[in-house]
Amino acid sequence: MSTPSLMKDEVSQPPRPPAQPGSRDNRISVWLLRILSALVVPAVLLLFFFTFEFLQDPRTNKALQIVVAIIVGVGGVWLLFWAMDRLVSALPDRAAAGVRPFVFAGPALMLLGFYLVYPTIDTIITSLRSADGSEFVGLDNFIRLFTESTYLVSLRNSVIWAIIVPIFCVGFGLAVATLADLLPRRTEAVVKSLIFLPMAVSFVGASVVFFFMYTFRPEGFGEQIGLLNAIWTTLGNDPVDWLRLPFWNNLFLMAILVWTQTGFAMVILSSAIKGVPDELLEAARIDGASEWQVFRKITVPTIASTIVVVWTTILITTWKVYDIVAVMTGGRDGTSVVAERMVTEFYTFRNEGIGAALAVVLLVVVLPILIINIRRFQEQEATR
Amino acid sequence: MRRWARLLALVTALALVLAACGGDGDATDTTPAGTDAPATTPDGEETTPPEGEETTPPPDGEAEQVGASFALFGAPTGTEGDALQGFIDVYNEVTGSSITFRGSTDFENELRIAVDGGNPPDVAATPQPASICAFANQGHLVALEDMGFDIAEMEANHSKFWMDLGLCDDGKHYGIPWFPNYKSVVFYHIPTFEENGYEEPETYEDLVALSEQMVADGLTPWCFGYGAGGATGWAGTDWIEDIFLRLHGAEAYTQWFQHEIPFNDPMVVEAFETYSQILHGEGFVLGGAQNVPSIVVEESPAPMFQDPPGCVMLKQGSFASNFFPDAPEYEPGEEEEIGVFNFPSIDGNTGAMGGGDTIIVFNDAPETVQAIKDWISPDWQCTLASASGGGISPYGGHGVAGVERLPANANTDPACLESEAGQTFAEAITEALGDGSFVFDASDLMPPEIGQEAFWQAMIDHASGADIQEIVDRVEAAWPQ
């Protein structure tokens, strides 16, 4: 009953009303097909995976590899299309409509489960095990995290990062967005582009840029080439190695993240500010409100939900910060943060239990923020 | 019809992408081997010496026609990797073997993944001896005893210390010393020594006295630099290790990195205090001791090349000449400016501290074992040592100019190296291999929590002038239980 023309018909047909309570057999076979169809894509991917393994072996004959690549590549995709088409169109029309969404969404859900849910569960299990994962140690790893000074320093630093960085990013972003709004169109565009530019720089790239800002050379090793020390010594002070100043070095690292994230805050907030109804602003001005009052009493409350979204997004980025610390100091001299610690414990020390426990801490802290963020966003979308 | 055509196009496109990906992986895998042959530019040079030698049969003729065929995986890349490839090429040609070599900058992780995935190389050369027993205890390696190596002879020629690093839980040996590097080296500015009539110090007291003399003469004796991003501090650990070895001997040194002697033991404190005589000597250090962690390791030799030199001496590994500034084209030994002397003795104790690549065997075909036995023999060590083999190698050299490797066999002639500095190093290392005073960099043998973090931080704190007892107590507290 499946002819090529049928495919077209099915696609163009509108979804049917909910199926009438059919026979039980039919229901089961529909579900079976739903699951099967979701499995086809992972199965083909698995086939691809093993083929990749085969193709990467340098000792295998090249011509053979090419042949296998073509057969599996063409054949695999063909198999995928054929199987899905077959499965769906073999059903009665009404059931086909019920299965079709699963053919498309199913593989995605399966892969999502494989790549997100499974690793999360595995990480939680690992966090309850010893360094090499050989024995179950209960909450020992977590107890160590919250009692040993090494980890407490990382946790303390991460909390400070998470407080300070969003404040400055949103503060600067809001200030620039508001002030740029008062500029002529073209100047505004230029100013905003300049502030937004660091967003295009990777964290590692930004770290290298700031490395030259903070560079310090002791006497006998040449002139100060660091911008900060050049300014500092011009003012008549002795040069300082900023990244070794206890506690302050953390703030110098945070400046890098603020530099890259301010542009993001500015762009989002700026569009929100432009969305504030002119009538409101004009009404306030006519009533004699100063610009500051207009900003405090009209603009900020109107864009409050956007501020929260921006704030939480940057908060999550900050909480997960790794690259900057790893590149600039590697966590020495009291600059370690949770994500950096996690990688060091897991890969350098092969301390899988503690590494996974740190990952769980990262996740647990991010989760509520994430949920709040999504709720907020949905509310915002709903009122739009 | 059109629908089918479109589908076919899509499928073909995907297939092409897949083929491209496959081809890609394939390409990166073969490039090292593929490009190395042309990259070793002195190809002509490299092939001619063996040909020339072939007319005069090699000693005993035992190396003839081994016919080994296996894959070697190692850490060297770049010119170092080219030199190793050059060595393999010579060996393949002389013995009719077909051995392939692949080097990786991410050697440690790649090897672990390959082994965990059940696809290990036949033979690997690891710079981290601490990983040997991890593989051996999982049953992946073949023991030297089972391959017919003479352990007693190897301990005599290749340093018992190094052999013991591959001595695992079952009482068998798994590591075969292949080539070491050498860190007990002081570089110095020759013209300054000659002008002032300074002599190469024999003892640590002489070294301190010489430094004081230099300060009195208005010079700054030392250049230091610990800076290395996340690895800042490692350069300082070499000082402590060299001093500890000379103060307390190789046996105590082993107990120290094995944690039988705690890190806050008075012996360790003594090593730190001895080091302080130089690091914290009045006017000894260019830029001041507290700033040493801020100076990048690679930039630390630069002042020695200024006119007049900003400092006179620098302690660093034999590899430091790689980052000497270009200004006066420095080639080890060829340039008069910079000389080397061995780190001086303490209480008459000398020693050689360094690292090195150790061969581990996953697949013990008889030809493979024969090839490895050849590689650690003085003759083939000579080929591995330098581009020409110093003109005395029976099979020539590896053919890559400027790359020198120290021998792991005490019977190797130091003249296999070309440069004067290289020969100085080789003399010291062969002597140390023979008399058992060669040791590995302890920080590489300690658990990573110590050797790659706490010990480094201790060196930073020490330079900043923190209390030594507090420093070593902190390291001891960080030692994993």
Cα separation of the termini of chain B = 71 Å
Task: State the assembly state of the protein chains.
Answer: heterodimer
How much strand content do the residues of chain A show?
Answer: under 5%
Q: Can you tell me the overall shape of chain A?
A: globular
Q: Tell me, what's the shape of chain B?
A: globular
Using CB atoms under 8 Å apart, which protein chain pair has the greatest interface?
A-B, 44 and 48 residues
Q: Segments of chain B where pLDDT lies below 50 for 5+ residues?
A: 14-63
Calculate Rg of chain A over CA atoms. Answer: 29 Å
Largest sheet features of chain B: 6 strands, mixed
Structure class of chain B: alpha/beta
Instruction: Let me know the number of strands of chain B.
Output: 9
Q: First CA to last CA of chain A: what distance?
A: 46 Å
Number of DSSP strands of chain A? 0
What's the short version?
Chain A is built from 16 helices and no strands. Chain A is mainly α and 384 residues long.
